[in-house]
Amino acid sequence: MSVSLSTHVLDTGRGEPARGVRVELLRGGDVVGFGKTNDDGRIPELGGGLEPGDYRLVFHPPSPFFRRVELEVALEEGHYHVPLLVSPFGCASYRGS
Length: 97
Hints:
By secondary structure, this protein is mostly beta strands. The protein contains no helices and ten strands. Strands 1, 2, 5, 8, 9 and 10 form a six-stranded mixed beta sheet that branches. It has a four-stranded antiparallel beta sheet with strand order 4-3-6-7, with no helix packed on it.
């Protein structure tokens, strides 16, 4: 079984991709993937060849209020895309395709 994960961050307050956002992928207490968003606000492969299980995505967004946004996700076999939408006043995520 193989699991892969990609992400992107959109700055909805500015209406554009969030560039240079640090994102980490953890399993338990171990960092198993990390990166910074590109000019399109994306990290095409944050983790590849992962085992199914529970993971934490940790975003460090460009927001004066949200310094760290952490999501716990259960990944099974296949590819997952988990975006973050962030503004100075709110944030949201969803399972993308």
